[in-house]
Amino acid sequence: MTKQQETKALIVERQNSVLRIWFNRPEARNALSAEIVGELHAVLDQVREDRSVRTLVLRGNGGVFCAGGDIKGFKSGMQGSGDASQIARSNRSFGDLMIKLNEQPQVVVMLVEGGAVGGGLGLACVGDVTIVEKETRFQLSETSLGIPPAQIAPFVVERVGLTEARRLMLTGARFTGAEAVRLGIGHILADGAEDLEGQCITVLAQIARCAPGANAVTKAIVFEALRRPRGEALDFAAEGFARCMLSAEGREGVAAFIEKRKPRWAEDA
Questions:
Q1: pTM for the full model?
Q2: How far is the C-alpha of 173 from the C-alpha of 168, rounded, in Å?
Q3: CA angle, 141 as apex, 139 and 144 as ends, to 5°?
Q4: Cα–Cα dist 253/61, whole Å
Q5: Who's near 225: CB < 8 A, 6+ residues apart?
Q6: Which of 84, 200, 235, 262 pairs as cysteine with 266 (C-beta 3.0–4.6 A)?
Q7: DSSP alpha helices (H): ranges in the chain?
């Protein structure tokens, strides 16, 4: 990986094949400022093609995952400008971040505790593995503020299904970690901050057994399956399979299986 991106609104720590990214506005419950969004865009771009980084772990500094949009910024910035086209562009930029994070080639693990409100709940919905502390407070609060959950709506619908998404968005329902796992927002329920980290370590060990290049191709296949007609999606998958089969990873994986040993990427991890 090239020299690490300098950040202020994020804390970025490299630990072997894992890049830990902390939202770093604890005084604002890690509300999503333009600075957080811009820095996260830059970090994701920097590591996108770096297969030595296998996993991204996102967490909020100070015991809160993310309180969603920066409401004070809405009033002073967006409403202060009165420019609808500018507001739309600003809002859409967060959608670009959601797409990028959702389809990032690395495995994305979300550690969600304290609160995940609005955009924070949306972020939880794009984790490949989302681990939720049981007391975490969730809410899609946008409609109670007189605005729609615009850029996160498609990702929430994809995660929980149309009927549940409608209920959550149109009522602003509040719920905690167990309900989030039942709905499919989270995958694993943790009992406290220590267990949250323990569950993460278990997941990281599972990811370490998987080849990073194969994981990247697998994620691409998953999303193309949603976009393309079935035949085209299967053609795309077949081409990815062939590339992986003839790659150094594919040759090493098959050899390791035949020789009854761990593949090198598992040993390296």
A1: 0.94
A2: 5
A3: 145
A4: 38
A5: 233, 237
A6: 262
A7: 34-47, 71-73, 79-81, 84-102, 119-124, 153-160, 162-171, 177-183, 193-208, 212-227, 230-246, 248-258, 264-268
3 state DSSP class of 111? strand
Domain 212-268 has CATH 1.10.3660.10: no
Supply angle C-alpha 133, 137, 143, rounded to 5: 145
CATH superfamily of domain region 10-208 = 2-enoyl-CoA Hydratase; Chain A, domain 1 (3.90.226.10)
Residue-wise pLDDT tens digits, 129-161: 999 999 999 999 999 999 999 999 999 999 999
What are the phi and psi torsion angles at 183 (to 5°)?
-75, -20
Mapping DSSP to helix (H, G, I), strand (E, B) and coil, where does residue 31 land? coil
The rounded Cα 242 to chain-centroid distance in angstroms is: 28
CA distance 187 to 204: 14
